[in-house]
Automatic annotation (TrEMBL):
Species per Swiss-Prot/TrEMBL record: Desulfoluna spongiiphila
Protein name: LuxR family transcriptional regulator, maltose regulon positive regulatory protein
Superkingdom classification of source: Bacteria
SUPFAM superfamilies, per database record: C-terminal effector domain of the bipartite response regulators (SSF46894), P-loop containing nucleoside triphosphate hydrolases (SSF52540)
GO BP terms, alphabetized: regulation of DNA-templated transcription
GO molecular function: DNA binding
Record bears the keyword rRNA-binding: no
Domain HTH luxR-type as annotated: residue spans: 819-884
Length: 888
């Protein structure tokens, strides 16, 4: 199959302005109405089918000479992501030089909240200075409330250049009453769109081969109630009759009944071959000659020479409710009213299996021509599930390899859940997509179901063998996340024998499993070799190479190897420099920012991490939460506490709104960590009661909730809590040592030094600290020790007493001192109060001595405890002495 076919996700015929028929009646009175309301941002035209809504809007745009974006909506657009894709494509069609920042949000799934989308879209629209029309035709097909909310949002503070035109069979569920009150909307309805007697006469007279006098035109206008579609049908019906007036008077009943009667009459006059063509093509939302020819099944006694080209020419010559969709005259569709009638007629006269076969044949034609979304729709309508699944099988790697994840997700969403749950290929595809979205629950559930289904299938089939390879990769990934080194590597090694060479995206996951598995086994050089070999493979796309560099970067980060982590991140950014892959770019920014923070380069770390938070919807939730945690720590260290709090609030809201439960739990746990860092021990201990610190295995990267729980125990300071902390840390140290998780182990060792220092076991404290320093020195990971707390400073001083030439220990101590609060950190009154605390005075004695109230003393004490990260009076005095705020 042509590789370029996979790129055409949009039907550009839907972006063509409605064709204006040559026999159009000038609707001057309506054009004047529209022009009078042209200064308002919204025009709403509502009327039943066949009232000329599309023609009127197209004619207005033509008369005004304004640029015009157009979308002919259908059922597939009843999805916010699909709708936005077409909206932006229509904008780009009118303004090709426009830089649309909203496009970056379409890489994400699920999409951001409507408020964010609206803001981005309005900012894009505000770039346009020249007035333009934007028409949403058949808006009644939209039932997704998110689309309605988006349109409503655009009208709150509408872009000055935009004039939005909605064409609908009914009033849309928008705040129209409010818009009327604000003078934002011009409205036309069905009564206003009815043809006047004079317009009806003009219309009928302009129809070819028909001479209608004014009296007959007046009768038909009344019979059809000025309904343009009804008049066209009447004109078709009257062609060939001599006594037109008598025939017109014979029509009776409502306009709907008249329409059905006229449709049937018009159809009865056509040749059997043309009727067959009409009935066959009624299942199509758009058609062209080659597609019609494929569907056509000549009947006994029919003309075998009849061609689709003749059929389409006949449709156009007879004005038989056909609408051109492009300027080339290739694609067409029926007027919706006519298509509905043809479908109804077909259902009444044809077995359902014949209709199903037509859908299946149409599906084949669309698939062969690279129109995959329509192919899937027709396959599923035919009940041809195997064909639809096969289409996904044949094309999913192309989509994955090009990072077109949202399009592939859209394909999967077309399948009913009951079908998806029974197809291992669809399940594994959904699981692979889940890896990019950070949806571990989806990965686990889909992998488990796919594995069970695959167990009942023969591996002699090449297709099943490939699926087996994908399931093994996913199982290896899950085992890796659970710190099962041996199991992860075993799955990865076995998967090598099953995967296709062109499965680049899946192979990038395999590279992650193998690279991290080798690192966890203490064989990081093997991890680097794995990545190098994968990147060097022929035809490996740049976006996949970038993903593999991220895999290598993670392996080096777990080793606390700063130089190689930064190098891998830069290689990633270089590979996608000209590609719109903000999701992958966010991984690289996180790795850079995280390493720079550990090296205590706070300003540089901040500049990297704000890139991740700039577009939170493009980042993996785990990366986003860690980036936010590091930024909060940076801002706190820089004295910008309000900024630190704001970052956390924004991320908590983001995760809550987007259903990222695990990331939301992490941010709740980090609230406790943050309270400890800012010295509010009481709040930290309160928050810790609601946090879930042990919700999963220890994490790989910056924030490890299990360590926050340990810090709470240290803040309590009792012998029992210190014993608990020691037991937990010892267990964690053994686990981190087993899986070679050096980046986390350094933190654990520093906390072990803290515990022993607090227990006055200085020799043990120095021993653990020395090991931590040895692991941290190659990467220059200084910040870990500063963040650990004051007892480490005392242990550092002891190390330097024994090893005065320990360069890294001295470097850490110097950074520690620079980062520590000084006497300027406390107010003059707080320093006074500290000195009295050191003398052992009670609260009442301090109040009397300083001539302040007891309540004021307690307030000052609370501030001192917070600033010095102390839990009580003794802790505050000891901390102040350690920092040199008061003398020993």
């Amino acid at each position: 199959m042509d590789e370029n076919k996979i790129k055409g996700a949009l039907l550009h015929t839907k972006l063509q302005r409605s064709h204006i028929a040559p026999d159009i009646v000038p609707r001057t009175r309506l054009l004047v109405r529209l022009e009078e309301g042209g200064q308002r941002p919204l025009t709403l035209i509502t009327a039943p089918a066949g009232y000329g809504k599309s023609t009127l809007a197209s004619r207005w745009a033509q008369v005004c000479g304004a640029a015009c974006g157009w979308i002919s909506l259908d059922a597939e657009d009843n999805d916010l992501h699909q709708f936005l894709n077409y909206f932006l494509a229509a904008l780009k069609g009118v303004f090709p030089q426009l830089s649309l920042h909203t496009e970056s949000l379409l890489e994400t799934h699920p999409l951001p909240p409507i408020a964010i989308l609206t803001r981005f879209l309005l900012n894009d629209l505000h770039q346009i200075t020249d007035p333009f029309f934007f028409v949403l035709d058949d808006y009644h097909r939209i039932t997704d409330p998110r689309v309605h909310d988006l349109i409503s949002g655009l009208m709150v503070h509408p872009a000055k250049a935009l004039h939005l035109i909605l064409l609908s069979r009914k009033e849309p569920p928008l705040p129209v009453a409010s818009m009327r009150g604000r003078g934002l909307v011009t409205e036309l309805n069905g009564d206003e769109l009815r043809l006047t007697p004079s317009e009806a006469a003009t219309f009928l007279k302009q129809m070819g081969n028909l001479t209608v006098d004014d009296a007959t035109a007046s009768i038909l206008g009344k019979k059809t109630e000025g309904w343009p579609a009804g008049l066209r049908l009447a004109g078709l019906y009257l062609q060939g009759h001599q006594d037109l007036r008598t025939k017109a008077e014979e029509l009776s009943g409502s306009s709907t009944h008249i329409a059905e009667y006229l449709f049937a009459e018009v159809l009865s006059r056509q040749s059997p071959e043309m009727v067959f063509f009409l009935q066959e093509t009624a299942i199509l939302d758009r058609f062209c000659a080659p597609l019609c020819q494929r569907l056509h099944q000549p009947r006994t006694g029919s003309d075998p020479e009849a061609s689709a080209e003749q059929f389409i020419r006949w449709l156009k010559e007879n004005n038989l409710f056909v609408i051109g969709l492009d300027n080339e005259g290739y694609w067409f569709r029926y007027h919706h009213l006519f298509q509905d009638f043809l479908k109804k007629n077909r259902q009444q006269n044809s077995p359902s299996d014949q209709v199903g076969e037509l859908h299946r044949v149409a599906g084949h034609w669309f698939a062969e021509n690279g129109l995959f979304e329509e192919a899937i729709q027709h396959y599923l309508a035919a009940g041809a599930t195997p064909d639809a699944v096969e289409l996904v099988r044949e094309n999913r790697y192309r989509l994955m390899n090009a990072s077109h994840f949202t399009r592939l997700h859209h394909w999967l969403s077309a399948f009913p859940e009951r079908i998806l749950e029974q197809e291992p290929l669809l399940l594994t595809t959904k699981a692979v997509l889940g890896t990019d979205l950070g949806k571990n629950i989806d990965i686990y559930a889909c992998t488990k179901k796919a594995s069970r289904l695959l167990a009942g299938l023969s591996l002699n089939s090449e297709a099943n063998r490939k699926l087996k390879g994908e399931v093994l990769v996913l199982q290896g990934l899950l085992k890796m996340l659970m710190n099962d080194t041996a199991g992860s590597l075993a799955c990865g090694q076995e998967a090598l024998g099953y995967l296709r060479e062109d499965a680049h995206m899946v192979r990038s996951l395999l590279v992650l499993v193998l690279a991290v598995g080798h690192q966890m086994s203490g064989k990081t050089p093997m991890a680097a070799k794995t990545v190098r070999e994968a990147v060097a493979k022929p035809f490996c796309p740049a976006n996949i190479q970038a993903r593999m560099q991220i895999c290598l970067g993670y392996a080096h980060y777990l080793d606390a190897n700063s130089v190689k982590t930064l190098s891998a991140a830069e290689d990633c950014l270089r590979a996608i420099r000209d590609l719109p892959l903000s999701h992958t770019r966010a991984y690289a920014h996180f790795l850079n920012g995280s390493v720079l923070y550990m090296q205590n380069n706070l300003a540089a770390a901040e500049s990297c991490l704000v890139n991740v938070l700039h577009n939170p919807y493009a980042a993996n939730p785990n990366n986003l939460s860690d980036s936010g945690c590091i930024l909060a720590c940076i801002y706190l260290a820089q004295g910008r506490e309000s900024m630190a709090i704001k970052v956390q609030e924004q991320l908590r809201a983001h995760f809550r709104e987007n259903g990222h439960a695990r990331a939301a739990d992490l941010m709740r746990s980090f609230e406790t960590e943050f309270a400890l860092r800012r010295g509010d021990v009481k709040q930290a201990l309160q928050l810790s009661q609601q946090a879930h610190f042990d919700a999963g295995p220890p994490r790989w990267f910056f924030y490890v909730p299990q360590l926050t729980l340990v810090k709470c125990m240290l803040a309590e300071g009792s012998q029992a809590s210190l014993d608990k902390a020691l037991a937990r840390l010892t267990q964690l140290d053994n686990e981190m040592h087993r899986i070679n998780r050096t980046n986390v182990r350094i933190k654990v060792l520093a906390l072990l030094a803290n515990v022993h220092q607090m227990r006055s076991a200085e020799t043990e404290a120095m021993s653990y600290l020395q090991t931590a320093l040895d692991l941290a020195e190659p990467g220059g990971w200084i910040r870990i020790f500063i963040d650990t707390g004051a007892p480490v400073k005392a242990a550092l001083e002891n190390v330097l007493k024994e090893q005065p030439d320990h360069r890294f220990a001295r470097q850490v101590l110097g950074a520690f001192t620079l980062s520590s609060p000084t006497s300027d950190f406390l107010t003059h009154r707080e320093t006074e109060l500290l000195l009295l605390l050191a003398e052992g005075l009670s609260n009442k004695e301090i109040a009397d001595k300083l001539c302040i109230s007891l309540l004021t003393v307690k307030t000052h004490l609370k501030n001192i405890f917070r600033k010095l990260s102390a839990a009580n009076r003794i802790g505050a005095v000891n901390r102040a002495r350690e920092l040199g705020i008061i003398s020993h």
